[in-house]
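Quick one: structure tokens for this chain, please?
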Amino acid sequence: MNIWENTVLTDQGKALQAKLLQGQTLKITRVTTGSKKVPIVDLRQQSDVTEGGYDITLQPSKTEGEKTVLPVLLENTGLKESYDLWQVGFFAEDPDEGEILFCISQASQAKHIPSEAESPGYSVTWDFYFNTSNTVPFEIVLNSSGLVNIEAYQEQTEAISEVNKKVDSLNSALSSKFECGSVSITGKSDGWVFIPVTYSYPHKTIPIVVASHSSADVAQIPCTTRYHSTTGFELGLYRLTAQTAFSWIAIEP
């Protein structure tokens, strides 16, 4: 589906085109998005894209028959707030007026652009086609700081995505096999007292549990564990004399 079905040469672009027929070179300087929609009949009168948009990266052009193809790359790096993209405007250098909005495309439906926090690494590319001729040379001003080969970018994005998946998988594995906690007990006893401890989530296999006395200002007392399961265990304490605390760690083998 071609969402950029409404593409027009602006009034400023039409005036520049007349100058190009006199031997000037069409120099595309930058591409910017717009976040508002306007009536189609008003597109030609625009001298800038609608508010709330951002500059996007021009990629090296290529030729297909009598058309020049301009790939553009949109990334959300550094984007604080998401927005709905409605317009893409191409700016060109006019020898008399300076930089002008040469042509503009308005989408048939908005494209939601997520913030970096919402979707890290998000990107999208589009190819825009311009008719070329022998009488109107075509030139593009590329920002080298944002320049990237589309194929290389896609390969890099896929590699980063694969690494992120492995990291997420590792974190998930670690979180599911490791758990720790503490128990605070008040009271006195002449013998063993057993306290049930429940894990925050069921483990796949019965964990190995290690417990230790963690109150620095109370005399050390013996402790043990028993009745191990995937959902918890019992912590045994011998001859309680005062309020004391114990720490434990459970690790799946």
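The two ends are 52 Å apart (CA to CA).
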